[in-house]
């Protein structure tokens, strides 16, 4: 049985990156003419066919939606999928999920696979590596061929597509103000590295709220975690020998880890230190004490993303293009970790 | 643009169930000749094409694996997916995930969609509704056409395919014996309804371990939860006015709920009552007290399932058929909820 030639296979055979193959086949000027020709000749020789989306779209709709997310262990993404499934199924669409595993190459390969006639459009949240590289050629390619994309949560500027996001800056601001109103004054934020835009924006909101109240913010009050595997040790070391009385964490895993670390240090929650987490998931509900959270409304976001994509798929074609960014309102869910 | 005729659409148009359409198109004797003819005529008229798996397999491999799972909110399924992704990616396969949402119809529809040339083989865990109906025609159909399936966790007897399971009876027995050795004697199990085989088998192991020690087991010591949405209230009511000193729960959500309910009743854990949960996930690690669990090795199970499927996909065809059931060893992860 002949094996189908894939982007990955071409990359391996020619010892170049998947991204290079993907771009060369689309005549990207980022790739030298020499390399482009080499890759295109190879692809032609072995009969590789890049996406024929425009063609397949003209002929027939698949009534399928492709979803590409970084991972499914985070409760947030699981709730988004639930929201997508509900709306999509109601409207007669099936949902196919692929994981990028936070890898740029996997995102490119999965997108290429699904765009190849399997689905009508994408709902996606970008991988950390894609955000770090700021390489979005795979999104542009799919869009250029007339296949719509809706981005959610980890969305970026400058891509012509609809987006479903929360106002991360405002949400972090209001969480910070909430802690200040409760009498807390020595605050810290546990965040991600800056290229993960939601982490950067939440940190920005935290700083802005403090500055507005005339409270100085030092870089040492911001913990940026890259190595999530070792987040427990990193958070424990960060909190040791500090007197923070309020912590905001950009996800519930960091929040519950901080809560345990503070309790281990003999602090009582919420009296000695209060905690607010982004993402209202299982961990927050079942932690002891239960955690006050900023509900990201994952199910709502998923439902809105699916509705938006289907609306675009079923709309008559227009010459003008306009894209919408929907900002989903967050809400503070008060529990035991704040007074 | 013409819309592709699907199983679901035919079912809606003819006002019959998806299962009836699926069976009729495969000439099942469960469906009357009259209904079969009606459905087949309609499908023919509108040019519906059922799976052409055998044909597509002969021509070309897709190097893709289809995974159908009931849901992704449970940590266990998320870890299985991680294991599948790792092994599959290593061997050059891509993974496509679809959710049944515990619905028989969605399982049938998703399987039909993926089997239609998108993938080479399936890894799946059955929906609750499929287990309740004991209707496996969609599995048999795919297998008959030469496409392999590997079932994991929620697997059933009598389907000619490889299975990756844990020994639920033995695991529950050893958890029960562990509690007895720790001096606990008034034990209860929080389980699912019987048609979910893992719940039934774990309950069986619990009862057998007690009987072996000459301890009588009453039905009132077994809580079978069907309505998971309201599990908190159900578990609180179950534990009220009892003096159980040991609880085994078939998943970590039930276990952490029981832990909270017991603490609310003024009981100290592990002294007044000890708890053991199936599934070693996030909730167990972050609960207070942390929970002793039976590690189900989700990642190992996923990896084994992927390896088994790929082995079968890449093996030369043989005339004999033999299928393997791999039993993954569980292990007790001791934490604070047991002495």
Automatic annotation (TrEMBL), chains A, B:
Q: In its UniProt entry, what is this protein called? A: LacI family transcriptional regulator
Q: What one GO molecular function would you report for this record?
A: transcription cis-regulatory region binding
Q: Where are the transmembrane segments?
A: none
Residues annotated as domain HTH lacI-type: 5-59
CDD domains (UniProt xref): HTH_LacI (cd01392), PBP1_LacI_sugar_binding-like (cd06267)
The domain of life for this entry's organism is Bacteria
List the keywords (alphabetical): DNA-binding, Transcription, Transcription regulation
């Amino acid at each position: 049985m002949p094996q189908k030639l894939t982007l990955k296979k071409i990359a391996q055979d020619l010892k170049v990156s998947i991204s290079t193959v993907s771009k060369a086949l689309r005549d990207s000027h980022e790739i030298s003419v020499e390399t482009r020709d080499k890759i295109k000749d190879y692809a032609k020789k072995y009969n590789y066919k890049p996406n024929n989306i425009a063609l397949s779209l003209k002929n027939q709709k698949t009534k399928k939606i492709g979803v590409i997310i970084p991972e499914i262990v985070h409760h947030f993404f699981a709730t988004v999928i639930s929201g997508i499934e509900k709306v999509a199924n109601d409207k007669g669409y099936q949902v196919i999920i692929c994981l990028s595993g936070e890898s740029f190459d996997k995102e490119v390969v999965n997108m290429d696979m699904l765009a190849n006639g399997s689905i009508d459009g994408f709902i996606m949240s970008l991988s950390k590596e894609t955000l770090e590289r700021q390489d979005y050629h795979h999104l542009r390619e799919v869009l250029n061929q007339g296949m719509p994309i809706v981005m959610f949560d980890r969305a970026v500027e400058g891509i012509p597509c609809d987006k479903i996001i929360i106002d991360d800056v405002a949400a972090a601001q209001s969480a910070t103000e909430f802690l200040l109103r409760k009498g807390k004054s020595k605050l810290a934020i546990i965040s991600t590295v800056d290229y993960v835009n939601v982490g950067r924006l939440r940190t920005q909101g935290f700083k802005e709220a403090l500055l507005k109240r005339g409270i100085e913010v030092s870089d040492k009050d911001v913990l940026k975690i890259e190595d999530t595997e070792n987040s427990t040790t990193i958070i424990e070391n960060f909190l040791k020998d500090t007197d923070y009385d309020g912590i905001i964490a950009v996800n519930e895993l960091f929040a519950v880890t901080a809560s345990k670390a503070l309790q281990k240090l003999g602090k009582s929650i919420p009296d000695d230190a209060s905690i607010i987490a982004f993402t209202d998931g299982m961990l927050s509900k079942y932690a002891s004490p239960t955690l006050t959270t900023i509900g990201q409304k994952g199910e709502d976001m998923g439902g809105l993303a699916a509705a938006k994509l289907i609306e675009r798929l079923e709309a008559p074609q227009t010459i003008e293009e306009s894209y919408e960014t929907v900002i989903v309102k967050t809400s503070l869910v008060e529990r035991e970790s704040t007074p």
